Amino acid sequence: MQSSSSRSKAVALAASVAAAVLVPMTLAAAKSAPRRSAAAHKPVVITFGSWIPFQDHPGHRKLLAQINRANRGRFIIKPVYTPPTGYDQKLLTEVAAGDAPDFFYLDYGMVKSFAADHALLNLAPYLRKFAASNPAANVKGYYPTSLQGDKVAGNYYALPFIDQPDVMYYNPALFKAAHLPLPTPNWTWQRFLADAKALTVPAKHQYGYLQAPGWPPLEVYIWSYGGHMFNRTGTRAMLTSPADIRGLTLMQTMVKDKIIPPQSAIENLNIEDLFRQGKVAMFLGGANDGNYTYNNHPIHTAIAVVPRGTKHVTGNWVGEIGVNPKAPHAKLVVQAYLDLLRAYAHTHVVPPVKSYAAKLGSVYVSSAPHGHIPPVRVPIILDSMKYARPLRPLKNMTQYYNIETNDLYDPILLGTMNVQQAAQKAEQALNTMVKASK
Amino acid sequence: MARKAHSLRRHETAMGYFFISPWLIGLLVFMAGPLIASGYLSLTDYNLLTPPTFVGLQNYRTMLSDPNFWQALQVTFYYAVLSVPLDLIIALAMALLLNQRVRFMRWFRTFFYLPALLPPVAISVLWNWILNPQYGILNEALGFLGLPQPQWLLAPQWTVPAYVVMSIWGVGTWMVIFLAGLQNVPQQLYEAAVLDGAGVGRKFWNITLPMISPVLFFDLVMGIVGAFSYFTQAYVLGQGIGSGAGVSNAGLFYSLYLYQKGFSELQMGYASALGWVLCFIVLMLSLLVFKSSALWVYYGGGDRS
Question: Which of B131, B237, B248 is the best residue to mutate to test the A interface, defined by the most A CB atoms within 10 Å of its own CB?
Answer without folding.
Answer: B248
